[in-house]
Design goal:
The protein is α+β, with helices and mostly antiparallel strands. The chain has three domains: 81 residues, no CATH class; 112 residues; 151 residues, no CATH class. It has eight helices and eleven strands. The protein has a four-stranded antiparallel β-sheet, with no helix packed on it. The chain has a three-stranded mixed β-sheet with strand order 7-9-8, with helices on one face. β1 and β2 form a beta hairpin. The longest helix is centred in the last third of the chain and has 24 residues. The protein starts with a strand and ends with a helix. 33% of the residues are buried.
Amino acid sequence: MKLFVCQACGNIVYFENRICGRCGHRLALLPEKMTLSAIEPAGAAWKTLADDAEGRMLCANSEFDACNWLTEPGSSERYCRACRHNGTVPDLSDPVRLAAWRELEVAKHRLFYSLLRWNLPVKTRTEDLAHGLIFNFLADDPLQAQKVLTGHDNGLITIAIAEADDAEREKRRLAMGEPYRTLLGHFRHEVGHYFWDVLVRDGGRLEACRALFGDDSMDYAQALQRHYAEGPPADWQQHYVSAYATTHPWEDFAETWAHYLHIVDTLEMAAEFGLEVRPSADRVGGLSVRVAFDPYTTDNFDSLVAAWLPFTFAMNSVNRAMGLRDLYPFILSPAVIEKLRFVHTLVQRAAKSG
């Protein structure tokens, strides 16, 4: 994720900011430029100070303070590039559900920042009725015993809005024995299933994927039942990025995909802040790094790993000093690194051909 600057006053502003805290200008993201712009009223539309253009419209979801993106220049679309992928949203007349949906939109927009940075092939349900990417944000029905489950089905991603409640999400994390559970993690994982369909199955990479992740033709329901009954194998950390990744090759790919997005976007943020890890106790240089490249565009996968390991070691240590859990509580074994390399190659090829 980048840092941005208010064009009206030079103040540093952030991806989710709606208003500049220094000069009070309204802010909006130009998706085609991936930049945040100060904006000013221009009749019924807006003028963008980033490019001195007029006639831009805010996404219709800005009415609910759920989006700060602009639609494309000259477009008649009411919704932005990210919000056009929404299917069902909660009852927005309910203040609790509205607040939950806003939290979900923050995570979804961060996901789309990455997808658009790479120009990955993403179609709406209107553009592809059979497999377009669509999000349904669903609330539990108090009259039904069955809770809404977050998941993916042929381009349809269901997100349980209960996950927007920090206490409920923590409860589920503990019940599942997970070291990490966030809204952004859910979005990145579930969209990994979508891109398995698009880039692996339909992209001619199925056999290469199976060589690393295993045979995806095994019965998914049986694999899931076995996982919850028996748990992961004892040596799972040598081969998988998470315990859940051991469930089935589809889940292994989706978990690896999510971690690749974690790594790239976090390293970009570290680079934007000019963060450098250079511990005085490091006599051999193995824990020293400065991110001096664009993690989103680099062809050199090894540079990502070489930066990520020292950075997360430092951040985990800082968190422990505050009595918090590790920022990144995972181990990247050689086998996992090769799986991440596969995802990196997929993404970079798609980015270059998009």
